[in-house]
Specification:
By secondary structure, the protein is an all-alpha fold. 68% of the residues lie in helices and 0% in strands.
Amino acid sequence: MPRRHDPERRQRIIDAAIRVVGRQGIAGLSHRTVAAEADVPLGSTTYHFATLDELLVAALRQANEGFAKVVAGHPVPADPDADLAGELARVLGEWLGGDRTGVELEYELYLAALRRPALRPVAAEWAEGVGALLAARTDPVTARALVAVLDGICLQVLLTDSVYDEGYAREVLARVLGGATGT
């Protein structure tokens, strides 16, 4: 039987892995569950991704694009006259304000790097990428601090299942930027 040409198969496998993790968490991810989700033979998943870590790296890299796209799509990094703290708080609210499934998935993959060292460079890429966007408006150390605060606020909102407080985020971000507004 001739081999079927399927140039989209690798991408379908990555998309399927993201859906599996979204539904079942990292613990539910296997070559078998991904093959079934992607409707491809099991051998296709192992052909494109020899290990689950390789598949997770590809899934995390794709999932990481979410917040970076939101930040890059706003005037935050480029407009020197924009209120950086306010704009970042608004962007974070936009990201958390919609369907949280994608945000939760992104963080699940991101935090998987704690136990899977192969994912750490990809998790670092996310922080460095957002930091580089923010460094256009501030110094590199402050940009890294802003990324840490954004991460912390996101995790608090996700883990406590609370409503995002844009005013709080704006105030905390302003303090990091050197403009303390409270006492």
